[in-house]
């Protein structure tokens, strides 16, 4: 009996030890599991918050792509200091819009105007986009003119590194450009991309100023140019003290009397009277010759023009787009004007 009791006692003891060992192993596993979870929780990186960006509109950069012809280079930064909204231009190309399905040529320009902004009036360089509806480019030339220049120049666009190039909407920019039949063309300037501060310093002043005096050129052969009928000439007479700036009308002004008035007003030295008169006569001869050549050129162009081309000129339309008001940009609603430039005249519609 004692032996049996002893074996039973020993067996119970072993069973107890096994249970204790098993329990200890389970505790270790649980502790290891908790430690692993704690370690993972400690070492796991925080998940980044998702950022949402508005989808870009298909023609959002169209106004920037159209080169702002005639803008002074040191003013370009000020043009882009605001996020101007030209959604009115973009909507014009949508179904039902004025430019939908039409062949359009666009160029940019700027108009410095005094407008209200943040409670005060400021002179702002306002970007404007002109859209020309035409089956062919309105011109391949650029006019260069200013009151400081003695004579107007009409030069090929390529001489000023400008040309009409296709505008590719954002949704098509992954496509091959040569396979696209674009209906939108912008006046582009390759010189623009190379204009850094260093390049500006190295460029000759006269060349630099030519860009600032550029105007998109347009010649309407079906309409007699007002300039051809003008009898006025711009006079810039060089003098030691200061140049003489004036306008002389060869039909309304008498040269001797006109010259004497300038002398009396201390605008012209008396000893320069004869030289000034000869200078004016030469400018008048040049202007009359230019008018005569222009009339002859128009007459010849009309004689050689096809009926299809005449119809294209008759149906050509100009649209002038200003940026629409937004909380972050100046309101330009009160300074909109139809006048484009001296070659294009007035727009058919201002938007």
UniProtKB/TrEMBL annotation:
Keywords: Coiled coil. GO terms for biological process: regulation of cellular response to heat. Residues 1-10 have a biased composition (Basic residues). Residues 277-311 form a coiled coil. Residues 1-51 are annotated as: Disordered. InterPro entries: HIT4. This is Protein HEAT INTOLERANT 4-like.
């Amino acid at each position: 009996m004692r032996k049996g009791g002893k074996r039973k006692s020993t067996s119970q003891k072993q069973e107890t030890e096994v249970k204790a060992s098993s329990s200890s192993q389970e505790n270790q596993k649980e502790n290891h599991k908790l430690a692993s979870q704690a370690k993972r929780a400690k070492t796991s990186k925080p998940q980044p918050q998702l950022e949402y960006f508005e989808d870009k509109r298909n023609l959002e950069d169209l106004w920037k792509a159209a080169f702002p012809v005639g803008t002074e280079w040191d003013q370009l930064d000020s043009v882009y200091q605001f996020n101007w909204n030209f959604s009115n231009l973009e909507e014009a190309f949508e179904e039902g819009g004025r430019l939908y399905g039409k062949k359009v040529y666009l160029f940019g320009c700027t108009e410095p105007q005094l407008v209200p902004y943040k409670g005060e009036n400021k002179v702002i360089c306002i970007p404007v986009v002109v859209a020309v509806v035409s089956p062919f480019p309105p011109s391949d030339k650029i006019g260069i003119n200013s009151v400081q220049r003695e004579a107007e120049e009409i030069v090929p666009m390529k001489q000023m590194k400008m040309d009409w190039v296709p505008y590719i909407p954002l949704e098509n920019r992954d496509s091959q450009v040569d396979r696209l039949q674009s209906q939108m063309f912008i006046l582009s300037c390759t010189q623009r991309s190379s204009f850094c501060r260093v390049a500006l310093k190295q460029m000759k002043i006269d060349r630099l100023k030519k860009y600032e005096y550029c105007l998109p050129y347009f010649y309407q052969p079906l309409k007699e140019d007002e300039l051809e009928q003008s009898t006025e000439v711009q006079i810039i007479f060089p003098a030691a003290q200061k140049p003489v700036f004036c306008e002389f009308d060869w039909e309304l002004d008498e040269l001797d009397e006109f010259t004497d008035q300038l002398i009396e007003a201390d605008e012209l030295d008396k000893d320069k009277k004869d030289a000034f008169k000869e200078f004016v006569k030469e400018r008048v001869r040049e202007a009359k010759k230019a008018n005569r050549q222009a009339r002859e050129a128009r007459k010849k162009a009309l004689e050689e023009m096809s009926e299809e081309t005449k119809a294209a000129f008759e149906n050509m339309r100009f649209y002038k787009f200003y940026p629409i008001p937004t909380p972050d940009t100046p309101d330009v609603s009160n300074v909109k004007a139809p006048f484009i430039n001296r070659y294009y005249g007035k727009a058919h519609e201002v938007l």
